[in-house]
């Protein structure tokens, strides 16, 4: 890949990462507002997060996952043919067909909410606090969010294909802003404050869809109604989508298993898992999803044009960048889990016990971060080639392994009277992410659909070396939980910001001395 192409990729990835960072900052403010101002003593937050997880599950799989992943290569084919009419016909037919399917799913979903909750959180049925009834009433409000956000995700895929990355990357911030407003200004208007979150979620979905449709209008690509379900492009999406549903959504399926088992654990387990997962989603979205988002359209284009050199150079670039970021981020989250949680959340309703329990699962999730990010990058190598077979096989193995480990770890921890049994669920998710990554990587090498640049080994070695130095630097500071709890807000923020800033400086300074630059990762520099 030429330097100009590298610079363009880096720029696009930086744009996505910056806007994603803005969105995630609002996301943390949102979660802080929820946990600080809404009590979970009666399990109300657990009920909301289950009601939120179900439409979010559909969004991740059908919106950001399978549908978008199958949609981009097909749209790229039409785009490369340079026939504007064909692209518009494909967009019109596909969006119409999708809207009808999503509408049917939404109606059915609202009608069977008690059944869905029974299967997703069966432990709620036996709870005395009314969690079961509360959760399915909340789900009736939140389920239609799936309709709006899936259409938002597909519209974002169209924008990404035209290298309009900023608007799709910022769109999630709209959800976070609206939920913040819901908590701060409307939660007291309801007898059960979490209803403000449910209605805010639904309203946010409508606003998000409107936000991404506007640029499509300016581009002349606003979808029009077209009942052409036999369009060849729709047939291609169907062929790709079913395997991709499973292959690209291993983590989400694992999290559903986590929710099912966590519903039987002590009150708060679902909220602790949700919160720790949210902290993992930041680096996963900033680097794994952002890099994959930029890679997929270009990899599809290079593959369609039989440009093997650019193809391999591009996927190697993504893997190198993911190594440079995921390893130190994982170490940083593990070491600073309690200071981060105390600084951002330990106020009012969020107790020191909540900090301890959330920290346990955050450490376990952080351990698997490199595997999660690596799998996100590798899977674009398969889907850009419309190769959906092996990712499904790898995903099946990973999900089965996760389920077995979930049961094994939780049984062992509960048998030993360990209070934080939910950590077993997080650890199983991390280990299954590595299994998925290893399977995808080994098969890609074996079948020669991926040619690894040998310089990756050098980058890996220098990254680990720099990360160890950063780790030793962080451990120099007092990270004791009780020390941080006794600090006031300003002291917490300043101390945490200082540690993170200096640790980041140490890491990148060592990379620089070792002649590694995230912006210029190419063989000649090594």
Question: What would you note in describing this structure?
Answer:
The chain is 79% helix and 0% strand. The protein is mainly alpha-helical. The protein has a domain at 38-248.
What labels describe this entry?
526 residues; 21 helices; globular; disordered C terminus
Q: SSE order in H/E notation?
A: HHHHHHHHHHHHHHHHHHHHH
Strand content: under 5%
- Mean pLDDT score: 83
Global outline:
globular
Radius of gyration: 23 Å
Which stretches of 5+ consecutive residues score pLDDT under 50?
A: 522-526
Could you estimate the helical fraction of the residues in percent? over 70%
Q: N- to C-terminal separation?
A: 16 Å
Helical segment tally? 21
Structural class: mainly alpha
Mind summarizing the main beta sheet? none
Would you report the number of β strands?
0
Structure summarized in a few sentences:
Helix content is 79%, strand content 0%. The chain has 21 helices and no strands.
Mind sketching the topology for me?
Layout: H1 3-37, H2 44-63, H3 66-80, H4 84-111, H5 113-120, H6 131-142, H7 145-161, H8 166-186, H9 194-218, H10 232-247, H11 250-262, H12 269-304, H13 308-335, H14 337-345, H15 352-367, H16 369-383, H17 389-415, H18 422-446, H19 455-475, H20 481-485, H21 489-513
Helix pairs in contact: 1-8, 1-12, 2-6, 2-7, 2-9, 2-11, 2-12, 3-7, 3-10, 3-12, 4-7, 5-6, 6-9, 7-9, 8-9, 10-17, 11-17, 11-18, 12-13, 12-15, 12-16, 12-18, 13-15, 13-16, 13-19, 14-15, 14-21, 15-18, 16-18, 17-18, 19-21
């Amino acid at each position: 890949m030429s330097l100009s192409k590298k610079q363009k990729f880096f720029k696009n990835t930086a744009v996505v990462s910056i806007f994603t960072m803005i969105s995630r900052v609002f996301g943390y403010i949102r979660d802080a507002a929820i946990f600080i101002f809404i009590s979970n003593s009666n399990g109300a937050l657990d009920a909301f997060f289950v009601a939120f997880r179900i439409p979010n599950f559909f969004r991740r799989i059908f919106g950001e996952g399978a549908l978008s992943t199958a949609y981009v290569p097909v749209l790229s084919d039409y785009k490369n043919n340079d026939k504007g009419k064909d692209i518009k016909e494909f967009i019109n037919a596909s969006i119409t067909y999708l809207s009808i399917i999503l509408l049917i799913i939404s109606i059915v979903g609202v009608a069977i909410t008690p059944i869905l909750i029974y299967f997703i959180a069966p432990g709620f049925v036996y709870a005395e606090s009314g969690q079961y009834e509360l959760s399915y009433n909340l789900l009736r409000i939140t389920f239609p969010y799936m309709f709006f956000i899936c259409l938002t995700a597909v519209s974002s895929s169209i924008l990404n294909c035209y290298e309009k990355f900023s608007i799709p990357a910022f769109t999630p911030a709209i959800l976070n802003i609206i939920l913040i407003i819901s908590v701060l200004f409307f939660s007291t208007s309801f007898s059960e404050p979490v209803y403000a979150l449910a209605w805010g979620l639904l309203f946010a979905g409508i606003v998000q869809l409107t936000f991404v449709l506007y640029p499509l209008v300016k581009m002349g690509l606003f979808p029009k109604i077209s009942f052409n379900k036999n369009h060849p492009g729709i047939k291609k999406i169907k062929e790709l989508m079913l395997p991709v549903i499973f292959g690209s959504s291993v983590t989400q399926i694992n999290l559903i298993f986590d929710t099912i088992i966590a519903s039987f654990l002590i009150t708060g387990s679902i909220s602790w898992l949700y919160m720790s997962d949210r902290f993992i989603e930041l680096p996963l979205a900033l680097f794994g999803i952002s890099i994959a988002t930029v890679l997929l359209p270009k990899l599809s284009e290079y593959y369609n044009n039989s440009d093997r050199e650019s193809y391999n150079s591009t996927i190697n670039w993504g893997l190198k960048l993911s190594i440079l970021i995921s390893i130190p981020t994982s170490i940083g989250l593990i070491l600073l889990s309690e200071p981060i949680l105390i600084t951002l959340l330990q106020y009012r309703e969020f107790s020191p016990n909540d900090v301890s329990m959330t920290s346990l699962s955050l450490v376990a999730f952080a351990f698997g971060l490199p595997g999660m990010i690596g799998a996100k990058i590798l899977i674009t190598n398969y889907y850009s080639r419309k190769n959906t077979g092996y990712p499904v096989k790898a995903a099946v193995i990973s999900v089965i392994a996760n389920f077995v480990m979930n049961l094994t770890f939780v049984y062992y921890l509960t048998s030993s009277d360990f209070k934080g049994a939910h950590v077993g669920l997080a650890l199983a998710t991390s280990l299954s992410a590595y299994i998925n990554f290893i399977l995808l990587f080994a098969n890609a090498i074996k079948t020669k659909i991926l040619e690894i640049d040998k310089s990756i080994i050098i980058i890996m070695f220098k990254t680990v070396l720099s990360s160890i130095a950063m780790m030793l630097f962080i451990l120099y500071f007092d990270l004791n939980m009780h020390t941080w709890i006794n600090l006031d807000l300003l002291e917490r923020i300043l101390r945490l910001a200082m540690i993170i800033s200096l640790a980041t400086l140490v890491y990148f300074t060592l990379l620089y001395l070792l002649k590694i630059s995230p912006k210029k990762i190419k063989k000649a520099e090594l």
